[in-house]
Amino acid sequence: MNVRSTSLITLSGGMLLSVFSLTGCMVGPKYKVPSAPAPPAYKEASPDAFKETADWHIAAPNDAVIRGAWWTVFNDAELNKLEPQVETANQTLKAADANLRAARANIRVQNADRYPTIGVSPLVQGERESANQPYFNSAIANNGEANLVVPLQVNYEVDLWGRIRRNIAAAKEESQATAADRQNVLLSLQSELALDYFELRSSDAEQKLLDDTVVQYQEALRVTSNRFSGGIAPKSDVTQAQTQLQAAKVQAADVAVQRAQFEHAIAILIGQPPASLTIPAAPISVELMPPVIPPGLPSQLLERRPDIAAAERRIAAANEQIGIARAAYFPTLSLSGLAGYQSTSITSLFTPSSFVYGLGPTLGETFFDGGRRRGVSEEAVAGYEQNAANYRQSVLTAYQQVEDNLVALRVLSDEARQQRQATASAVESERIFNNRYVGGVDTYLQVITAQTTALNNERNDIDILRRRMDATVLLIKVLGGGWDRTQLPAQ
């Protein structure tokens, strides 16, 4: 290789390397988070709702403290044992994890466009020309000789208008949205497990109540049978007592089915077949007070909900698409280079005289595309507006969900107090009517009415407590479960 060739190669290589680091301006709008309505306070929250408790603290925006184990506020050892298994074994969450890995891999795919592609494509070719072809020149014919080429090819697109950078940014923002989606899936699964768990414990309480009721009704049947045998009571008293007893047994069987189904649902949530999970019965007490969860301020909700964070990140990604669409209106600059060896013989292939190279830029501009770029640009703007509307709707829905559960907790608290009074009266009424029946004052029909009323009220006690626990779980869920935006992966 002569000195002139070496100098040209060095100069061309230096130009190519300097262009690799060249970046131009970025066309398209600069991203701003869309405004969303934020009332100063929740309508259904009491003043005490903004106070911190020993178990729950108001989340501050951008607070870096992770409070993922939100279920511990219920102080239930069995629930504390079950909940962590969701994150390690639930198959729906594993699918979300895979989706997140795919989104992160896409960042690497888009980031690769910042660098040149380098490849080699060796060629071994032989040919023979016909001596009988028109204008055949035997002096220059290449009959029977090989053509050996070993080229190293380099291609690079200069990101003059920010298309590549915006593609990378969009991939990062979509990855953040996918990470928030993953957290939302986890929170939903954990909440579903807590809801199923308190349904199961309510079933335990109902089962105990009905089992005790069956024992009570069996005693009532014994009393009526003795009175009938002694000629004091009619046969109808016995049949009515038998009906009450059998009805209570049927209700107990129904509750047993419900409990088994909730246990099966919990097994699936923690990634186990139903046959491998048995949760010992532990009736929930109607005297239990659900933990108080302060909702904080509405403005903080935007920082605490993973679904809202995902919606906001997708607006940012849609904003990048507008810039990508606008970059298509400007020229593209590509650089291509080739260096290698070419010879007709393997023995001389890698000699200086066989060295070949080429380097040149390509500037491209589309003058007419039938409105394609305009359509792509309008589509990108519409996509941004759609994502912005989805974001605002997510915010409004989040406010509604918080308000719904706040009012549910407030009303159910009053309802529980009134129901306990009603239950106490019904139980006392049952005792009075039973004594009056034994004393021969009232009929057994009045006893049955009192028994039914007392049982219904006691079951209502349990149901109201279940609804209060459910509303508490749902309030924690709609407040983000202790999550905040600082847990998103950094760009």
Automatic annotation (TrEMBL):
<dbReference type="GO" id="GO:0015562">
    <property type="term" value="F:efflux transmembrane transporter activity"/>
</dbReference>
<comment type="similarity">
    <text>Belongs to the outer membrane factor (OMF) (TC 1.B.17) family.</text>
</comment>
<keyword id="KW-1134">Transmembrane beta strand</keyword>
<dbReference type="GO" id="GO:0005886">
    <property type="term" value="C:plasma membrane"/>
</dbReference>
<keyword id="KW-0472">Membrane</keyword>
<keyword id="KW-0812">Transmembrane</keyword>
<dbReference type="Pfam" id="PF02321">
    <property type="entry name" value="OEP"/>
</dbReference>
<dbReference type="InterPro" id="IPR003423">
    <property type="entry name" value="OMP_efflux"/>
</dbReference>
<dbReference type="InterPro" id="IPR010131">
    <property type="entry name" value="MdtP/NodT-like"/>
</dbReference>
<feature type="coiled-coil region">
    <location>
        <begin position="86"/>
        <end position="113"/>
    </location>
</feature>
<keyword id="KW-0175">Coiled coil</keyword>
<keyword id="KW-0564">Palmitate</keyword>
<keyword id="KW-0449">Lipoprotein</keyword>
<protein>
    <submittedName>
        <fullName>NodT family efflux transporter outer membrane factor (OMF) lipoprotein</fullName>
    </submittedName>
</protein>
